[in-house]
Design brief:
The chain contains 6 helices and 2 strands, in the order H-E-E-H-H-H-H-H. By secondary structure, it is mainly alpha-helical. The chain has 2 domains: about 5-50, no CATH class; about 60-190, no CATH class. It has a two-stranded antiparallel ribbon. The chain starts with a helix and ends in a 5-residue tail after the last helix. The structure holds zinc ion. Zinc ion (ZN) binds near residues 16, 18, 21, 33 and 35.
């Protein structure tokens, strides 16, 4: 089920927080009950029942595009640096210069496009996504390395370092959920990222 379908399925069963009147058909992230007038935060309700990964929330993929370009550009640069170092050929060195420059131009263009479409909030969340997924990677690698005892002179440091890495990954999960919740609210407000 796509993120949009999941939201539509949840929204079908949303009822008023006060009188349980079915609020199906009412539009927006926050709606007022036609029976009793109570206000229901539909976006928060949908987020609390969200079953899938947060990156499947509608618009999340669009926010993650600059990050995807940054990752692919970085991987290609590292790969080309290896090739150029091995061959010392002019063509590879030229590609090595062009790849990061091209990736940077594409990244800036995507950030600008995000700002045009979704405003400052979209740009901030797109940048936050870089921090979150870098944090996941470094937290995970750090956990594996400390668990393997690579740099650890004694056990107490091992526990502290593993705990720190796990805490980083938990913080990243909360950041990812934050973006997902904003995606849901914006989708319900007909202004998807
Ligand atoms: Zn009501």
């Amino acid at each position: 089920m796509s993120g949009n379908d999941q939201i539509e399925t949840i929204v079908r069963d949303v009822t008023c927080v006060a009188c349980e009147y079915n609020l199906r058909g009412l539009q927006g992230p926050v709606v007022k009950c036609p029976e009793c007038g109570a206000v229901t935060d539909v976006a928060a309700l949908v987020a609390s029942r969200w079953g899938g990964p947060w990156y499947r929330a509608p618009g999340f993929d669009r926010l993650a595009r600059p990050l995807a370009v940054a990752v692919v550009g970085w991987l290609l640069t590292v790969f080309m640096a290896g090739v150029a170092n091995a061959t010392r050929a002019g063509f590879e060195l030229l590609v090595l210069a062009v790849v990061p420059a091209g990736a940077l131009v594409a990244w800036v263009a995507l950030i600008v496009a995000t700002g045009r479409r979704s405003g400052v909030e979209g740009v901030m969340l797109a940048l936050l996504a870089h921090l979150i997924y870098s944090g996941y990677v470094f937290g995970f690698i750090g956990f594996l390395m400390t668990f393997a005892g690579a740099f650890m002179p004694d056990m107490s440091w091992l526990v502290v370092a593993c705990g720190f890495c796990v805490a980083v990954m938990i913080a990243c999960y909360h950041g990812e959920r934050f973006i997902g919740r904003r995606c849901i609210a914006r989708y319900l407000a007909f202004r998807p990222f």
